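For this section, I looked closely at a protein sequence along with its fold in token form, which I now present.
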Amino acid sequence: MVEPGEAPVPLESGKFNLETRGAGCVLHAWGTQVNIVRRLSAIEDERPHAIDVVAVSFGARQSKLTILDRSRARGAFERNVEQAQFRKFLGRIIEREFGGWKLKRLTSAADLANSLSPRYVRGVLQRGQACWAVIGVSEELGSSICDAILTTGLIWLDQVRRQQRRRFCAGLRVFVPVGRGSLTANRLAWLNRSALGFELFEFDPRGELSHVDEQDFGNISTSLTPCRSTSDLGDPAKSWASQLLANLNVQSVPATDGLLSFRVRGIEVARASGAKMTFGLDSDRPVSERTLPHLLELTRELAHLRSPNAADETNPMYRQYPERWLESEVRRNLRALNIEFDRSPIYSSVPAVAGGDRGLIDLLACDSLGRLAVIELKAGEDLRLPLQGLDYWLRVKWHLDRGEFSMQGYFPQRALSQEPPRLILAAPALAFHPMTETILQYLSPQIEIERVGLNSDWRHGLKVEFRRQGAARLA
């Protein structure tokens, strides 16, 4: 038997009883460490290895309870056991380190209505009329889950502030495994800490806790590779490029390594430098007069499969890399995002941000006054968008403050403004996650943020449906 946020309870012969009572039944389970009674009123779902039922405790608290066959659902069972063990481990640490504070029951139960993931353990520390929201993550869940803790943490903080209106909510305390706090510390440096406190702690396997000093917030590790100018193509590559670009669906995009990239709605089909050109989706084949027809046929076929009017929208080539397709539309019509953008170069993923599962496109542009703009593109709903946009923004600001963009050859012939970059979050209007505004309200007011909602049929051409500053909500 598994209840959300609780340790699984074995139902063993002689250690549980099930009896009808009224319109439902009562389940009583006991053992050396457990003795619980639940009234079961309805079955919500049935699966080959489990059933979900509506359960009510004697405290009249209603929840969903799952009865599963452990031998056939071992993965889910073991995950619940691990989370239960981590809750106890984290609870002992917090109660030991914060004497005088009362820790309310920790939980990792999923709360889909409020986008609270079961991967994170949540609770509230209380003392008198003050409280802190707390959140922690187990090392067993891996680095990507640890890195994403602050997104759920800010949503939890907002919920605690609403639920604890009679208390002063001092802020959020975050607990991560030792060595996993650097990204969270970078992000904490750019939260609105004038209004709330944000504290970061790392714990080791023995339960020893260390406080990450605020002086270490924002000490990012980032590098900026030199931008090599794209030289003019020579023959025969120049001639081949002209034939490629005769297809209006092909874009040429200068890359920072000096190569010229040729793309069909975001997918690269060829690369050129000097007099040489290579092509292919999965490998580099040299272009020659003999292979040029193969390149042109590949381009035509890809443009057909990846057409806004494609007959088969389930084709993998149509569905693949939607963010790259959206990027190509933005490059064609950057002024749709902002009238001040000029024809200066647009760079992608410079500086690069670690994490191969970001699912975002990072663009760096410059307006007519020399001010940089960080543009985060997402083709679908993603709760991580605000803080992943922050990751890229803080790296751009870091290098801008040190004059490195000009020194490394970016935006040649432009005098860059030292004003902090703007952050533009762009996605289809209906694809912004409902918790986006909740997260954005906790970012530093020093960051000028604009949300741009695009038309849902952006593949047919880019239009702006709405613009909102920061955490401003839609009417």
